[in-house]
Design brief:
By secondary structure, the protein is mainly alpha-helical. The chain is about 75% helix and about 0% strand. It is built from five helices and no strands. α2 packs antiparallel against α3 and α3 packs antiparallel against α5. The protein starts with a helix and ends in a 7-residue tail after the last helix. The mean pLDDT is about 85.
Length: about 90
């Protein structure tokens, strides 16, 4: 693979790195931080999908731009709501 092909996928790479970091938090028993970060990553994906042109978004775009942005926003909002509204385990 050439460097230009890899560089063309930067929006997807940014989202995947954010997901890996958030899953790392979950693996080390910081699930609320991991879930919160995952929600932020989904919102960042919505912004990237809305701002980056279709030919640059590549694999970040699955359907139409409007659908993708709405989907990422809904998923991000739900995950953020869950991360902030559920009590952490072990507290009364």
């Amino acid at each position: 693979m050439r460097w230009s092909q890899i560089r063309a996928q930067w929006p997807l790479a940014l989202v995947l790195v954010g997901m890996a970091v958030s899953l790392g938090f979950v693996m080390f028993e910081r699930w609320r931080r991991g879930a919160f970060l995952l929600g932020l990553v989904a919102l960042a994906a919505a912004v990237l999908r809305g701002v980056v042109p279709d030919e640059r978004a590549r694999l970040l775009g699955v359907r139409s731009k409007g659908f993708d942005v709405a989907f990422y926003v809904v998923i991000g909002a739900v995950v953020l709501w869950l991360a902030t509204s559920i009590d952490s385990l072990g507290t009364g």
